[in-house]
């Protein structure tokens, strides 16, 4: 069994601060073999990395931001993939080394494109077209596609585009498939932005997100468990 947890730990109105020690303490209560974090600083990464044997932090320095993306594991060997193309912002390829298998995993935190068109999904689709993942691939993180009940077409387009590469939503046909994972303060609405897709040659055991009642309103703004405007997603694979 391989269990992966992904979480965007930042809150939209927090200035340059994501993975506090308190947030790390709370998320560590969840069971995982690999932890993927979006929107944390190098300083925050350094403060917790000693607890993990395998870890990596990446920030592309293409804008005035100190926030990056991190991956941690104490059990599973993780290698940075030398095929990484930084043009596709925060679609970060790694290799997972298991006793009986080697997997490709893409840590996702799609950023706003610099062309001004705000087509977040295209960044992901262009990256997948470039990498052309085939066997034993997991793509997990904050896709930023802005899907919800008012924009269900965005989710369907995601399914169609990734389906071209035989990649499927690990939440498909579960009660979580259409549940929102993100509260956007500017739009004052919930969205489904956090996903995990995988290739069809990987057996999915379970997918889960926390209960709806863990969203708490503070000063007119919603936070998951008082910690972030995203909730985590956890996926278990029968590997």
Relevant terms:
globular, 15 strands, 239 residues, alpha+beta
CATH top level class name: Alpha Beta
Distance between the terminal alpha carbons, to the nearest Å?
5 Å
What is the gyration radius calculated from CA atoms? Answer: 17 Å
Number of domains: 1
Proportion of residues in extended strands:
35-45%
Poorly predicted residue ranges: none
CATH topology: Deoxyribonuclease I, Chain A
| Assigned CATH superfamily | Endonuclease/exonuclease/phosphatase
Q: Assembly state here?
A: single chain
Helical amount:
10-25%
Number of helices: 4
- pLDDT average, as an integer? 93
How do the SSEs run, as a string of H and E?
EHEHEEEEEHEHEEEEEEE
What class, by secondary structure content?
alpha+beta
Explain this structure:
- The chain has 239 residues and is α+β, with helices and mostly antiparallel strands.
- It has a single domain (2-237), classed as Endonuclease/exonuclease/phosphatase (Deoxyribonuclease I, Chain A, 4-Layer Sandwich).
- Helices cover 16% and strands 38% of the residues.
- The protein is built from four helices and 15 strands.
- It has helices at residues 21-27, 42-48, 120-131, 152-163; strands spanning 2-8, 34-41, 54-58, 67-73, 77-80, 91-97, 102-109, 137-147, 167-169, 182-184, 189-199, 204-208, 215-218, 221-224, 233-237.
- The strands form three sheets. Strands 5, 6, 7, 8, 9, 10 and 11 form a seven-stranded mixed sheet that branches. It has a six-stranded mixed sheet with strand order 3-4-2-1-15-12.
- Strand 10 and strand 11 (189-199) form a beta hairpin.
- The protein is globular, with a radius of gyration of 17 Å.
- The termini are close together.
């Amino acid at each position: 069994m391989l269990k992966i947890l992904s979480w965007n730990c930042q809150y939209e109105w927090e200035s340059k601060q994501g993975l506090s020690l308190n947030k790390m303490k709370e998320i560590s209560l969840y069971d995982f073999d690999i932890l993927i974090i979006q929107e944390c600083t190098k300083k925050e990464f350094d403060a917790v990395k000693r607890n993990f044997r395998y870890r990596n932090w990446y920030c592309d320095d293409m804008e005035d931001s100190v926030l990056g993306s991190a991956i941690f594991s104490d059990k599973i060997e993780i290698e940075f993939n030398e095929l990484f193309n930084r043009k596709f912002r925060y679609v970060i390829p790694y290799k997972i080394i298991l006793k009986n298998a080697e997997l490709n995993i893409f840590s996702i935190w799609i950023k706003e494109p610099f062309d001004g068109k705000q087509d977040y999904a295209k960044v992901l689709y262009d990256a997948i077209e470039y990498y052309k993942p085939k066997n034993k691939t997991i793509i997990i993180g904050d896709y930023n596609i802005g899907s919800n009940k008012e924009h269900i077409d965005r989710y369907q387009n995601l399914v169609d585009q990734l389906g071209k590469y035989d990649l499927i939503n690990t939440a498909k046909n579960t009660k979580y498939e259409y549940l929102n994972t993100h509260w956007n303060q500017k739009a004052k609405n919930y969205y489904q932005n956090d996903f995990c897709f995988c290739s069809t040659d990987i057996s999915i055991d379970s997918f889960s997100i926390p209960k709806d009642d863990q969203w708490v309103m503070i000063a007119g703004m919603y936070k998951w468990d008082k910690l972030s405007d995203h909730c985590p997603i956890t996926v278990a694979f029968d590997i």
